[in-house]
Hints:
- The protein is α+β, with helices and mostly antiparallel strands.
- It has one domain (about 10-80): Nuclear Transport Factor 2, Chain: A (Roll).
- About 20% of the residues lie in helices and about 50% in strands.
- The chain has one helix at about 65-80, and strands at about 10, 15-25, 30-35, 40-50, 50-60.
- It has a five-stranded antiparallel beta sheet, with no helix packed on it.
- Strand 2 (about 15-25) and strand 3 (about 30-35) form a beta hairpin.
- The longest helix has 17 residues, at about 65-80.
- About 0% of the residues are buried.
- Mean pLDDT is about 85; it is low at about 5-15.
Amino acid sequence: MLGATSTxxxxxxxxxxxxxxxxLADRKTFYLDLKQNQRGMVVxxxxxxxxxxxxxxxxxxxxxxxxxxxxxxxxxxxxxx
Length: 81
């Protein structure tokens, strides 16, 4: 079950944070943070399940490929639903 998303811009507390999204799904919370540092931009994807967190980093320059792959996976999942 998906929940609401929220969006907010860069804050003084985390100056490298450009954008964030939060997705609620049952007992999991996913955070998608667009961050920038001296090496460039990256999307940090964090899964939080009852306080246990796992994180991956996706370089912003491959987001198109990443999103295309997810779209293909979604299309296949929809076909099997």
